[in-house]
């Protein structure tokens, strides 16, 4: 029987020969010896509730390579946004804190970095786009000036140079009549066009890492498909690494190379998209699949996942999904390590990984 490696802070490099072993960080990439575009190691982010600190993200490790899209998937309240906000340095005292772990941007440690240092990196080497662009756009400033602003700050361009670059960016994200639209205000754009403005703004300084938090959720399906296509195209062209946050597995299939499924602050399963779709191992991943409608099945029973993600101050011991899990049994009350099922696939469930654990 393989010996689980518990509490190990340094990720074990997964070279493919460790099936059945507990791992901190399984990854599908071949570039395991190179520096990742973004690497999280043992990330723990906490919020203060009633005078005590509780983790919203716990012992989370993942690698994101250049020119790769990793989808972070899970229900509302699983910790997806908190993960991205932690990377951006936007979880701050007195209400929240990154309590432990490393956030490495191209090898550079961001955990514990000063606000001044983070300001020079945000919008430059890493950028984030959100579900609702209106919350990020300034309603009383033209969109052209908003895109130009980051180029003036981070690249030292003059306003004229920055506006010319903004025009080129609008063209790149396929905003029609880009020169004219630069002079308009956010309310003059449709939802899909506003998201393109946000993408142009995020791309302005050619970030190495793009964090996309449900960027297409508020759009209708046709516009959603167009924006997803655009993001895939831009990622390819700019060689960016994209962390794509979504609760929608259909979107994952369209855009991602790899998937990390999150539940209650932990990654419960991780692997390449085709592997996760063909052979989901964690009961939570399976439940997410059972809850999506499929066009290839005439008769189908959709099963909503009963219950809800527990609040931070009421997390169960051991497997956090156990209270909602149809396979829960003795042993689930114990801490569950992430077990490697193959070189690139791992799950955190002693029931469905038992075969490899005991091999
Ligand atoms: N500022 C905060 N103070 C206290 N708790 C918070 C705060 N922000 C997030 N949380 C809690 O952290 C947990 C994870 O939230 P998070 O927003 O990351 O979930 P999510 O998976 O992104 O969900 P959604 O898709 O709804 O945004 C939740 O329990 C949430 O209530």
UniProtKB/TrEMBL annotation:
GO terms for biological process: peptide transport; transmembrane transport. This is Peptide/nickel transport system ATP-binding protein/oligopeptide transport system ATP-binding protein. PROSITE patterns: ABC_TRANSPORTER_1 (PS00211), ABC_TRANSPORTER_2 (PS50893). It is found in: Cell inner membrane. It comes from the Bacteria. It is a peripheral membrane protein. Coiled coil: none annotated. CDD domains: ABC_NikE_OppD_transporters.
């Amino acid at each position: 029987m393989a010996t689980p490696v518990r509490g190990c802070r340094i990720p074990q490099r997964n070279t493919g020969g460790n099936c059945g072993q507990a791992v901190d960080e399984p990854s599908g990439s071949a570039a395991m010896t190179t520096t990742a575009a973004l690497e999280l190691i043992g990330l723990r982010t906490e919020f203060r509730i009633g005078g005590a600190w509780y983790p919203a993200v716990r012992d989370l490790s993942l690698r994101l390579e250049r020119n790769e899209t990793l989808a972070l998937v899970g229900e509302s309240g699983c910790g997806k946004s908190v993960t991205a906000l932690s990377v951006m340095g936007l979880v701050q005292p007195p209400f929240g804190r990154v309590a432990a772990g490393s956030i490495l941007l191209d090898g550079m440690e961001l955990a514990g970095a000063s606000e001044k240092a983070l300001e020079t990196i945000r919008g430059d080497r890493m950028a984030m786009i959100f579900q609702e662009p209106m919350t990020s756009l300034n309603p009383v400033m033209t969109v052209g000036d908003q895109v130009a602003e980051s180029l003036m700050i981070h690249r030292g361009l003059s306003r004229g140079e920055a506006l010319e670059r903004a025009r080129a960016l609008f063209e790149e994200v396929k905003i029609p009549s880009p020169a004219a639209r630069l002079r308009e205000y956010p309310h003059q754009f449709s939802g899909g066009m506003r998201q393109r403005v946000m993408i142009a703004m995020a791309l302005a300084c050619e970030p190495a890492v793009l964090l996309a938090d449900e960027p297409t959720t508020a759009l209708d399906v046709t516009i959603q498909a167009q924006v997803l296509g655009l993001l895939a195209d831009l990622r390819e062209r700019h060689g960016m690494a994209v962390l794509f946050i979504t609760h929608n597995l259909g979107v994952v299939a369209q855009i991602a190379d790899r998937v990390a499924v999150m539940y209650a602050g932990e990654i419960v399963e991780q692997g390449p998209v085709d592997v996760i779709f063909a052979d989901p191992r964690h009961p939570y991943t399976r439940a997410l699949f059972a809850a999506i409608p499929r066009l290839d099945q005439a008769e189908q029973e959709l099963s909503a996942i009963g219950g809800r993600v527990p609040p931070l101050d009421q997390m169960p011991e051991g497997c956090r999904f156990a209270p909602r899990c149809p396979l829960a049994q003795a042993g689930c009350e114990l801490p569950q390590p992430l077990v490697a099922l193959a070189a690139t696939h791992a799950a955190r469930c002693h029931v469905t990984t038992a075969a490899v654990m005991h091999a």
